[in-house]
């Protein structure tokens, strides 16, 4: 975690925004730590720390306006920021179901553009999504009870995109024995 990224998050008030398990900042740190524990490369770990900077389809609070992307690039690097932007841009209703398809269709919620992301981009997206959702499910029994079966279904469909470590964690959090 870079000091610059933490400064951006704190300046934007992430430590004061409520989120399951405490604050948004605590969640972002846990997601980054979870990705690191799965052996993710540094850019994906950094993206985990900043994944909600531009808001998401499921969490509309944006810490940074898209016009400030250069600030996040300076803090976490271009590759990590591109992952954050890609993650934030996902129109979930239009993109989740076909993420494992080849070619996959991904709809950018900011522009409405239909994209065909690479396998690597889809793997990063799936891994980041899993870390995000599993952190919330692990910390909130209410969320796990309400959404656990749907998350397990989603991640089972996405299994070809997930690392073995992410898949095993998914099974543990969602109360399924790992294979």
Protein architecture, described:
The chain is mainly α and about 180 residues long. About 60% of the residues lie in helices and about 5% in strands. The protein has helices at about 5-10, 25-35, 40-50, 70-75, 80-90, 90-95, 120-140, 140-155, 165-175; strands at about 20, 20-25, 105, 115. It has a two-stranded antiparallel sheet. It starts with a helix and ends in a 6-residue tail after the last helix. The mean pLDDT is about 95.
Helix-strand blueprint:
Layout: H1 3-11, E1 18-19, E2 22-23, H2 24-37, H3 42-50, H4 69-76, H5 78-88, H6 92-95, E3 106-107, E4 114-115, H7 119-139, H8 141-157, H9 164-173
Antiparallel strand pairs: 1-2, 3-4
Helix pairs in contact: 1-4, 2-3, 2-7, 3-5, 4-5, 7-8, 7-9, 8-9
